[in-house]
Amino acid sequence: MAAALHEALASQLPMRLEFYEHWLKPAGLREGRVGVASFQAVLSFLRREDGAWSAIMTGAGEHAADWTFATLSPAWRALVRRLPQRVRLRVALRLVSRLVDETQPSSGARVAVGRDGGRLEIGRSAFCDVRDSADSPQCAFYAAALGRFCRLVALDAEIATAECRGMGQPHCVIVAGGVRAAAEPAEPPSLMGSRWVG
To answer: How many separate domains does the chain show?
Structure first.
């Protein structure tokens, strides 16, 4: 999670990367040793970066989805793309739910798939723990990860944040609607190209 955030910072705010590496130390990223306090400090400062939050969280969510999917076996990835559409959507939701649990073990994440699409409900989110209510959804990381997982399992979907705890609502709710089969699945980048994974 922290490595994906670092990757997004490097592409979106390269001139500020050194500042954020005070908390996201490269040695700690390589060894998987970035503490909760450091992660929360980075999120707190990012909220003050003028207009950068959404782009960085979107990039980080997509990186995390790519890296998670790339660690799954090629046989499993090929199989899941041949499953019925509703099952593929459930897989995408379960994968993002796993990311939620890795970020916030007490998240209480729940997924549901219906005739009209799918839904991810998050009880607690590290990204949405704010002192004052935000003006816009803070869950862009998870929304982007869900969108990317959908593309990786050969689905196109319209992803939206229906509720956000950061805006004073009881839960974060991300929905996938307009779900349809993609012409061809997206492919995750090779882990060999990543500085932190593999």
So the answer is: 1
